[in-house]
Write a structure and sequence with these properties.
The structure holds two protein chains of two kinds. Chain A is of the alpha/beta class. Chain A is built from four helices and four strands. In chain B, 35% of the residues lie in helices and 28% in strands. In chain B, strands 1-2-3-5-4 form a five-stranded antiparallel sheet, with helices on one face. In chain B, strand 4 and strand 5 form a beta hairpin. In chain B, helix 1 packs antiparallel against helix 2 and helix 2 runs antiparallel to helix 5. In chain B, 39% of the residues are buried. The chains are: A alpha/beta, B alpha+beta.
Chain lengths: 104, 142
């Protein structure tokens, strides 16, 4: 748990995983959770543009202070895990968090 | 709101960190003006992609947004290298962005196709060595 503890009660129903923000902007529709191994401020901004609620940083990536400040402005929850992308996605998926709809 | 409201932004080409700030501001303004979430998302994603493009490829530029109750128009203008082959640039996956840009999570060749997907009209004027002008329109009541 990196940031946004007060929003932990919010429900989310779908997620996506990508290190390419271009693809997130292109294919994501209503997914509320983004799993990524990319760490720069545009990750937060992309999540904001897509009206997401939560970012999970995989592979032990930790966001910088300015990223956390940006997340604060947008009421985003930031989480981090040592798991790699495939495993982190798999864990959430098997526990009921679907991939949701794709924006074709 | 019966008359058009205009917003102007200078997009800093030197600063990748601040790229997207104009789009964030537009998103907030449209929210204040009471536009539907779907419209707000389409406008802000298209503008964000355009802004990122101007920072990656053109050393920045200017963004002008005109907000009508029925229509929102975004004009992005830069003095960058221009687009050699617009048809090719419109293909999904085609990108001239260097690896440094890809390592930042962009440059997958989805920017322009994505902007076209999210807007109702898109027009590109580009001249090599002079720059590019991109006009996008989102109709509020489709």
């Amino acid at each position: 748990m990196l940031f946004g503890e007060e929003s932990l009660e919010k429900d989310v129903y779908s997620a996506c995983g990508s290190d390419m923000m271009s693809d997130v902007l292109a294919f994501v529709k209503d997914q509320a959770v983004l799993l990524t191994g990319l760490v720069n401020p545009q990750v937060i901004r992309t999540a904001e543009m897509m009206d997401m609620n939560c970012i999970v940083f995989v592979r032990n990536k930790i966001p910088s202070e300015d990223m956390i400040a940006l997340a604060k402005n947008n009421e985003l929850v930031l989480l981090a895990t040592p798991l790699r992308m495939y495993e982190a996605c798999g864990k959430l998926y098997t526990n009921g968090l679907s991939g949701g709809k794709c924006n074709e | 709101m019966s008359e058009a409201i205009k917003f102007h932004f200078d997009v800093d080409g030197e600063n990748f960190t601040s790229a997207g700030e104009a789009s964030v501001q537009i998103k907030q303004k449209l929210r204040q003006l009471g536009f539907a979430p779907d419209i707000i998302r389409r406008v802000s994603i298209s503008m964000y992609e355009g802004e990122i493009n101007m920072v990656i490829h053109a050393g920045g530029g200017i963004a002008d947004v005109t907000v009508h109750p029925e229509q929102i128009t975004i004009v992005l203008e830069d003095h960058g290298p221009g687009i050699a082959d617009i048809e090719l640039a419109m293909q999904e996956g085609f990108s001239t962005a260097p690896d440094t840009v890809r390592s930042l999570g962009f440059g997958a060749g989805m920017g322009l196709p994505n902007m076209k997907r999210y807007t109702d009209e898109m027009h590109i004027e580009s001249e090599l060595g002079k720059g590019t002008k991109l006009t996008m329109t989102v109709n509020v009541n489709r």
